[in-house]
Amino acid sequence: MSIDLPLTWAAIILFSIMMYVVLDGFDLGLGILFPFFTDKDERDVMMNTVAPVWDGNETWLVLGGAGLMAAFPLAYAVVLSALYLPMILMLLALVFRGVAFEFRFKALDHERHFWDKAFIGGSVAATFFQGVSLGAYIQGIPVVGHAYAGGPFDWISSFSLFTGAGLLVAYALLGSTWLILKTEGGLQARAYVTARRLAWILAAVMMAVSLWTPLADSGIAARWFSLPNLVWLAPVPLLVAAVLSLLLRSLTRKAQLPSFLWALALMVLGYGGLGFSLWPNIIPPAISIWDAASPPQSLGFTLVGAVVTIPVILIYTVWTYYVFRGKVRTGNGYH
C-alpha cells in the first residue's frame, strides 16, 4: 500500500504547529502576564520557570516552517507573500524577546526595567501577530496563476484583529496555569485567580470565533452544518464545554497539573476545530494540500529526514521537561 505523501506531510506540519502553540504558548503567556506581577522576585521566579525550555519550544516553529517550504512550496510562497508583514513583525518580536530574556538576568538593577518592558512588548507583539496571521489565513488568500493576488495590507481586518486579541487571552491562560504548576505561595494564588477569569474570557472568544467563521465563509458553514458532518461534529461544542467545566473545577479544587492539562486540551480543541474548518485546503479557500505539494520524489526524500529528526526533538523535549520538573522558588535560577 502506497503512502499518501502530501497527507503525511500535512499531518507532520499540523503536529509541529500544534506543538509550538501548546509549548511556546505558555512562555509567551508569561510575558503577557508580566505587567500584572510587578514584584522583582516574582518576575524572577516567573522567568526561571521557563529559562531551561523556552528556546527549545521554538524548535517546533522552525520545523513547521521548514516543512512547509519543503513539502508545499506553493503554499509557502503564497502564504508568506500574503502575510509577509505580520510574520516579519512576529519574528522580530521573538528575537527582541529572546534578547530581553537573556539580558534581563545580567542587567544592573536600575537597567532591568528596560528589559522587562522589552520582554513584555516582544511577548505581546509576537502573540498578537501570530493571531492576526491566523485570522487572515482563515479568511482566505486570493490567488491568481499560483501567485498571491492581494495587497500588502489585506491581512488587516476586524476578524484578524479579533483573533490577534483572542490569542493573547489564550496564551495568557496557558501562562497562568503554567505558573500554578511551577510556583507556590502568593504567586500561585494570584495565578489561580487570573486563570479563572481568563478561562471565561477565552470561552467567550472561542464562541465568537466559532460563530463568526462560518458566517464569514459559506464553504466553512457548509462543512460544519451539512449532513453527515453535522451529526459527527455535534459533540464538539459539548466537548469544549466539558473541558472548560473540568478546567474551572480543577482551578476551584486547586488541582495543579490537571489545571494546566485542561488548559492545553482547550487549546488543542480550538486548534482542531479551525483545522477541520479549512481541511483539506492549505491555501484557503480553494487550493488543497495535493494541489500545492512538491513532487513525490521530493516529498519522499524529505520525509526520511523528518522521520529521523522528529523523534530526536521529541526525546530531548521530554527529557528537558523531566530534568527541570518541580517547583521554582525565589533564589532558584539557571543564569
Determine Rg (CA atoms, Å): 20 Å
Question: Quick one: how many beta strands?
Answer: 4
Shape: globular
Q: What is the CATH topology classification name?
A: Formate dehydrogenase/DMSO reductase fold
Structure description:
The chain is mainly α and 335 residues long. It has a single domain (5-323), classed as Up-down Bundle (Formate dehydrogenase/DMSO reductase fold), CATH 1.20.1630. It is built from 15 helices and 4 strands. The protein has helices at residues 5-33, 40-50, 54-57, 59-71, 73-82, 84-106, 112-139, 158-182, 185-216, 218-225, 229-233, 235-252, 256-278, 289-292, 296-323, and strands spanning 143-144, 147-148, 281-283, 287-288. The strands form 2 sheets. A two-stranded antiparallel ribbon has the order 1-2. Helix 1 crosses helix 13, helix 4 crosses helix 5 (73-82) and helix 9 packs across helix 10 (218-225). The model has no long low-confidence stretch (mean pLDDT 89).
